[in-house]
UniProtKB/TrEMBL annotation:
UniProt xrefs under PANTHER family: CYTOKINE-LIKE PROTEIN 1 (PTHR15974:SF0)
Keywords in alphabetical order: Signal
Pfam families: CYTL1
Gene behind the chain: Cytl1
Identification of the protein by name: CYTL1 protein
One biological process term in Gene Ontology: positive regulation of transcription by RNA polymerase II
First and last residue of the signal peptide: 1-23
InterPro entries given in the database record: CYTL1 (IPR029253)
Species the sequence originates in: Sapayoa aenigma (broad-billed sapayoa)
Entry keyword annotation includes Transcription: no
Amino acid sequence: KLPTMKMLLSLIALLSAALLASTAPPTCYSRVLSLSKEITESFKELQISKAVDSCVKTLPRLYLDIHNYCVLAKLRDFVAYPRCDTVLEVNELKEKARSLYTILISYCRRDLVFLTDDCNTLEIPVLPPTEES
């Protein structure tokens, strides 16, 4: 009975630790990373959507890398872009970009390290890794 009880208590402790770990608040870095991925995906979907206004094709490219210092200028340019203000999806994307910019310059200012300042890399879409057969 004693080994079974120890195993059961160990299992309960392990499950409790896993539950606590999954409910931990996001770090500044994880929040910025997830929001930048969400924005990049939304931009890609917007570009291929057939139901959206033709002005969307003229939007500045929005491929984000939060490790690149140029991401700040990229976000500013995108939010300030004067066209497509009547397109709801663009306005929502601009709002997310504005939030990411605010988080980067205000809340996470001291937590982030920019590894590069190569602005040209933010003009090229990030391709998903290819699966080898």
